[in-house]
Amino acid sequence: MELRAQGGRAVLVGERDGTHTEVDPDSLPLPAGLAAALHEWAQVVAAVRCDDRNHRPGGVTCELVSRRGRQLAGRLAAAVGAPVRYADPVRGELEQVEAPRSVSETAVATEPTPWATGLTVTLVTGVIVTCSAVVLSLGLADAAWWLAVLANLVIAGGLAPSVWIARHTPVWRWLAYGVMAGIGTAWFGLLLRLLF
Question: Rounded distance, CA 125 to CA 174, Å?
Fold first, then answer.
C-alpha cells in the first residue's frame, strides 16, 4: 500500500493482479480521525507548493508537510498492520514506513525487573504497615475487640482501591505488595491477640 496526495485528497494506491488500484481512506476501517487527518494533510500539500517559485525544498513549511505525511504513514501502517510506502510530495521520493513501536513495548522489552530493590521496598513497606495496624489494633482491642476489627476493616477498605490499581504499575507494585503483606500480617496479629 502506498500513501499519496493527489489533488487535495489522500489516496492509497495498491496493486492487485498487476494493476494499480486507488482507494479512498474513507472506505477503509481506520481509527477515528485518521482518514480526516490524511485528507487534511493532502489539502495542505495542494495549498503549499514546494518548488523554486514559492518555497524551496528543505524550507520550514515544506519540511513540516513532509514530516506530517511521514507521521500519518506510520499511523496508517499501525492501523493496517503492515508497512506503508510513503510518496513524499516534497522530495519526490518513495520510502517504506513501518508501524511505530509504543514506548511501553520498548520499556518492557529492555528493562529488567529490579528484584533486590523491589523486595527491599516491599519488606520495609510491609513492616511499616504491620506495625502501624498492630499498634492501632492492640490499643483499640484493650477498649473493645470490635473497635479493633472495625479499625482494621477501615484500614483495609481504604487502602484496597489504591493497592488494586498499583499492583501492575512497575514501581508502585512493590509498595502494593508490601501493603498487602502488612495488612495480612496485622490481621493475623489481631486474631492471635483475640485468641490469647
Answer: 8
**Are 108 and 64 within 8 A, CB to CB?**
no
| DSSP 3-state of 5 | strand
Report the chain's C-alpha Rg in angstroms: 30
Residue type present at position 9: R
CA distance 18 to 2: 15
The predicted pLDDT at position 53 comes to: 45
What average pLDDT does range 82-107 have in this prediction? 76
> What is the amino acid identity at position 59?
G
Residues 6+ apart with CB under 8 A from 181: 122, 126, 129, 130
Q: Decide: 65 and 41 in contact? Cβ < 8 Å.
A: yes
Predicted confidence (pLDDT) per residue in 123-175, tens digit: 999 999 999 999 998 888 889 889 988 988 998 999 888 888 888 888 899 99
Q: Grid coordinates representing 24?
A: 479512498
Q: What gap in Å lies between CA 12 and CA 2, rounded to an integer?
A: 5
pTM greater than 0.70 (yes/no): no
User: Nearest to residue 48, comparing CAs of 3, 5, 94, 97?
Assistant: 5
